[in-house]
Amino acid sequence: MFRAKRSDRIKVLIWDRTGMVLVHKRLEGGGFVWPQLRDGVMRMSPAQFSALFEGIDWRLVRPEEPRSTLCPCGCGEMTRIGEDASEGLDIVPAQLRVLVTRRPRYACRRCPGAVVQAHAPEHVVPGGLPTEALICARPRRCARAPLPRGLSRAVPAM
């Protein structure tokens, strides 16, 4: 975490399993009371850290492109005409976040009705937001954790 000299801005480097993310926040009104420095180190309680980052959007956007954007009739590249987005709640130890999957739609300008889009990801609970990680909050015990009624565990293909 990096704090500006006037204590009105902070920057934090966070690892989100896809890479490093730089989060920037402006602190308005001087409402946050900074802890004292001891031996050159500032220690924060979990409550102070949580208050400091309140209101930051922790969405992780995963783009999903179709395999090909070439028109099936062979007349060329299709044009992007929009996108669909689906969300799922995921958990990182002691942190909830929203996973957003964006799936752009492409259409051919020359062929009526030719539209392609990547397949939507399957949800653990049909029509629900929870991801597997949220349902199984203890990853080491996930293989033994019961799933909600009516669901079966998918067996990975070898």
Fraction of helical residues = under 10%
Order of helices and strands: EEEEEHEEEEH
How many independent structural domains?
A: 2
| Arithmetic mean of pLDDT | 75
How is the main sheet built?
4 strands, mixed
- The tally of helices reads 2
Q: Could you list the spans in which at least 5 consecutive residues all have pLDDT below 50? A: none
State the end-to-end CA separation: 43 Å
**Which class do the helix and strand fractions yield?**
mainly beta
Fraction of residues in β-strands: 25-35%
Apparent shape: elongated
Radius of gyration: 22 Å
Number of strands: 9
Describe the structure.
Helices cover 7% and strands 34% of the residues. It folds into two domains: 2-52, no CATH class; 60-142, no CATH class. The model has no long low-confidence stretch (mean pLDDT 75). The strands form three sheets. Strands 6, 7, 8 and 9 form a four-stranded mixed β-sheet that branches. It has two helices and nine strands. The protein has helices at 46-52, 132-135, and strands spanning 2-3, 9-15, 20-26, 37-38, 41-42, 60-63, 79-92, 95-107, 115-117.
